[in-house]
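Recap from last week: sequence in, structure out.
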Amino acid sequence: MLEAIRKHAQGWLAKVILALIAITFGLFGMESYMTGGKGSGMIAEVGDLGISRDELTREIQAQTERMRETLGPAFDPAVTESADFRKQVLDSLIERKALLLDAQKNKFVAPDAYIASILGQIPAFQQDGKFSKQHYEAVLRQNGRTPAQFENELRQGFMLDAVASPATLAAFPSDTSMTQIARLVSQQREISWADLPASSVASEVKVTPSDVERDYAAHKAEFTEPEQIRAEYLVLDKTSVAAGIAVSDKEIGDYYAANAAKFGRPEQRSASHILIAVDKNADAATRAKAKAKATELVRILQKSPDRFAELARTESQDPGSAAQDGSLGSFARGMMVKPFEDAVFSMKPHEIRGPVESDFGYHIIRLDGIQPAKAAPLNEVRTEIVDELRKQQAQKTFADLADNFSNLVYENAQSLQPAASATKLSIKQSDWMGVKTAPPPFNNSTLSAALFSPESIKSKQNTEAIEVLPGVLVAARVIDHRPARLRPLTEVSQAIEARLRAEQSARLLAQKGEAAIKALEKGDAAGLSWSAFKVVGRQPFAEMDAAGIKAVFRANTDKLPAYTGFVRPDGAYRIVRISRVVQADTPDPALLASVSAGVMQAQQRADMKAMLALITAGQKVKIQPNAIEDSR
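Predicted structure tokens:
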């Protein structure tokens, strides 16, 4: 049980640190974190809350960056530049505002004590094991955040979790259904196959010049090259500024001396326990009975301390540690519930203490060992200190440079050279690019809109300095321009003919394959050359891609042999014969667990979607006609 508590606490803290980085003690009322009061520039309203175009733009950029990081090379910028994507992001903001209003209505407000307790548990904000306001503020500054922003986000997260928890915690899949699904997933089918090559219909494929001309006329938009530009640009990057800052040995030594506790490993203790569990809301008699049992165990252990492992195995109601003779392993402060932790960190090695009361019951604790705090030597953390000092110094240096940079690109609108000379940056040039295919940094919506505007293209003047990422400013100007043009038919006729031939071939081949399948179902062997039989599961393999496997397992097998077909990537049509269905008697436990988890997540998503729709429907939502325009 305590192991689960510890893992949950670490996971929660990791989520907080990753998502929000910091938190503050500052006290702000509801108005400050129910962001978006009605006002000018609002593109949508949800009850009393507004959504500004800037807010939508920021959310689009944030989701785009998350997709870019998640998908890597597979990321397609065109997806996030579409109107559908912008509409989805706006809908998610509307739902979030509706949830916040519902949380406010139901008084789901994070107490200040809760905010302070989370803050005190985050190691990044601690010095000598205690919360340090200086550390906290430094982390905030390094991540470009303000205390108000952080607390707003944390409080909103608390409110959203409180409202959403009924949907996320109430999914209970049926064991019978899970077993049936697992059996279907683990089902195998015995198959063989025969291919109809594309060459078998090649003589029937006919594409005339008039076919090509008609297709060209019907799809001129596809053959139109979009407007393109080339640009020159400057990038002022805080990371690069930091890398160029020299740090002296004295500064390194002073920082190490002042922050020695920050480096190395804090004191850790290893302990074992016996838990007599009782609910914190149990009546007095029930709690007294549990405490009496724990007291009796303490009495036994005082006489026979060597029986601790035995009693942990037989009496402890914490299954995870009981199987390990009560051992909880090693842990530092902040990883266990407070009463338990306070006891452990005040004990001597091999001491047995109890009963210690917590929300989970009564603990009998044995301290098994102490691993003292260990400071890391300077040579091991030198690089970390240099990076930290450079970041700190870069904050001011970058701010000064950014102001000068912004002024120079504005005041010298026809050239980037003055700004380049003042900041010692090199002017770079882009290749030809379109608005929807612009590479970084031009895929930033604000920079792209500024650079591709008719005014910038005509005047070839500098854009303003635009922050494309936190700590990254870019200024650019158009140096060359190609208007959109329709490619002549002579350039694209061969490609059109090839596509039309491929499409016609696929249609003819599918017709031939479907006719062959009908003949097979009537008992006509159709003169096909079949492969050897093979028992397959739902995983693709060398001879059968994902589309083929899907076709095999979608086929109706009420009557065997059954037949199905699909087009292969090489253009051939593959006919598959299913001769036998192999059912698993008992689903694999790991598969059953995976299926149950997947179904539960699907139920949670469905419940959450339904709840969001219900809550949003209860709010007055107003969306401006141009809400998703120019919000890329």
